From TrEMBL:
Entry keyword set: Cytoplasm, DNA damage, DNA repair, Glycosidase, Hydrolase
Active-site feature positions: 65 (proton acceptor)
Record's protein name: Uracil-DNA glycosylase
EC numbers: 3.2.2.27
Coiled coil: none
Catalyzed reaction equations: Hydrolyzes single-stranded DNA or mismatched double-stranded DNA and polynucleotides, releasing free uracil
Stated role: Excises uracil residues from the DNA which can arise as a result of misincorporation of dUMP residues by DNA polymerase or due to deamination of cytosine.
Keyword Nucleotidyltransferase in annotation: no
GO cellular component: cytoplasm
Gene designation per UniProt: ung
Organism: Aureibaculum algae
Similarity annotation: Belongs to the uracil-DNA glycosylase (UDG) superfamily. UNG family.
Length: 221
């Protein structure tokens, strides 16, 4: 796998690349990409870090797996490439933004514009085999991304962590809530959202209110 990661993140993750678990993960991912169709494309595996520098980081959104459909995953959680239909979870995210902030939904689901403003869109697992959800889980990615979350908590202040759904909420134990703000709700997937666990969480206005209270530029969602 291409282990070139954005310069600002190298002090945070360089030791991980040298760890035995990551060497095993690297071998696994390379073999998977050789034998099967996998997503995202190899050059986009670390896209979340490429678009959001460590220095500019203000918000962390934690997802679980990349999308496993053709052409969907672009290395940012919940985000899809511009020519791809907006998935249901992302549709519900946009609906909540519209209800919360009065912003109409964008024409596409590419969230690079969020990432460039300091939103780290981090999946716990950074790769997946096509059409096989969860196929690259428990191979080492979670160890890597848990370390990233812990290092952000340790080395930054006043970051907003958005934990949506049961899986993401478990990451709260990695975060110092005395230094950072943690907002939790149900997952934006239709199953959760339609049961009343997502809509109305106002996470987008709450995030911006917090950032403004710390004299930080709010996010243009």
């Amino acid at each position: 796998m291409d282990l070139s990661i954005a310069k600002s993140w190298k002090p945070i993750v360089a030791k991980e690349f040298e760890a035995t678990y990551f060497q095993d993960l690297d071998s696994f991912v390379k073999a998977e990409y050789r034998q099967f169709t996998c997503y995202p494309k190899s050059s986009a595996i670390f896209a979340a870090f490429d678009y959001c520098s460590f220095n500019d980081l203000k918000v962390v959104v934690i997802g679980q797996d990349p999308y496993h459909g053709v052409g969907q995953a672009n290395g940012l959680c919940f985000s899809v490439n511009e020519n791809i239909a907006v998935p249901p979870s992302l549709q519900n995210i946009f609906k909540e933004i519209e209800a919360d902030l009065g912003k109409t939904s964008p024409e596409n689901g590419n969230l690079e514009r969020w990432a460039r403003q300091g939103v780290l869109l981090l999946n716990a697992t950074l790769t997946v085999r096509a059409h096989e959800a969860g196929s690259h889980q428990k191979k080492g990615w979670e160890t890597f991304t848990d370390t990233v979350i812990s290092q952000i908590s340790k080395n930054k202040e006043n970051v907003v962590f958005l934990l949506w759904g049961g899986f993401a909420k478990k990451k709260a134990k990695l975060i110092d809530d005395k230094k950072h703000t943690i907002l939790t709700s149900g997952h934006p997937s239709p199953l959760s959202a339609n049961r009343g666990y997502w809509f109305g969480n106002k996470h987008f206005s709450k995030t911006n209110d917090f950032l403004k209270s710390k004299k930080l530029q709010p996010i243009d969602w």
